[in-house]
Amino acid sequence: MAKMTYYIVRDVIEKHPVIETCEVSLEDLRDEFNIEAVKKQCKFCFLDVFLEESPFDLDHNQEILDLTVLLDISLDTFEEIIQDSRPRLDDYQEYLFILFKSIGKHPTEIDGKSEHQCGLIIDENILMSIHVGIPLPLDKLFRLFNRNPQMLIRGGITYLSTTYFDALIDPTYHVLDGWRKLSDDIEWSILSQKRVDQQTTLSRLIGIRESIFDTVKILQADREVVNRMKSPNMPIFKKEFIPPELDDHIRHLLDEQDILRATISDLMNLFFNAESSKTNRVLSRYTFVTSILLLPSLIAGIFGMNNIHFPQISFWWVLVIMVSCMGGLWFLFKKKQLI
């Protein structure tokens, strides 16, 4: 089921854009809100297409087939948006195609991550966003434009698309905060020598580390997309309206993840050292008990020999000697003379 919402800037009144918001259906796209008709009636517009359920069988999904016709997009493009995992920017003859990705959930297990992928199609003065699984807070995004309406008016598609990318990147900050808090909890549990589930703790550390690797790759690819937008080969974008803070945000997140990745590696070393220390303490106890019993065992072995030439001695005297030896060893241990 597809949910489609138009955000249309039809006019500018007293230097403020008039943004019209309306949800549309497939029938609306065929008639009143036909793509070509809307493009001629507005300065620029944003069409958000949210696919609530992943259409696994694209060839037999009639709604998707209808959308490809109404939006003038090939079925292969829909398939790339849903299945391709490479953020990129492609300049086709008919339109500009962008794949952008973000992380929406911080995992505590290896398979707990949630990635959000969005496909954007830019054609003249219209920007179409197609995504699956997670609705985006676009109302909040468009309310932000009221703070600086002149940037939206002058920047047009460039300012709209880059601000949209920035909104996609923002959840990564919450992801890092979640990882950081979880790593602090794990560190505290290790240092305080609490009883922890070894398998769960190790699984969480490995899960965070693997997800950090994936997130770094995604952010690096997203950064390449932003940098390519600044290329002279992309005349559709007004370079002066690509905010420098967008690249700064991505670089800052990459730096934060490098620090967090080092922290997780240190935590894994701390975890293994703590487990090794526990094993050493157990072995030291066994070694101490063995050392205490070593001399009495030797005495028992000697007096237990079946040898007719060995001097006879009472069992009780042997027992007294053994206990005396154990007591002496214990006394020396308490006085720190026996290490």
From TrEMBL:
Pfam families: CorA. It is a multi-pass membrane protein. Signal peptide: none annotated. InterPro entries: CorA_cytoplasmic_dom (IPR045861), CorA_TM1_TM2 (IPR045863), MgTranspt_CorA/ZnTranspt_ZntB (IPR002523). SUPFAM superfamilies: CorA soluble domain-like (SSF143865), Magnesium transport protein CorA, transmembrane region (SSF144083). Keywords: Cell membrane, Membrane, Transmembrane, Transmembrane helix, Transport. The chain crosses the membrane at residues 286-308, 314-333. It comes from the Archaea. It is found in: Cell membrane. Belongs to the CorA metal ion transporter (MIT) (TC 1.A.35) family. This is Magnesium transporter CorA family protein. It comes from Candidatus Lokiarchaeum ossiferum.
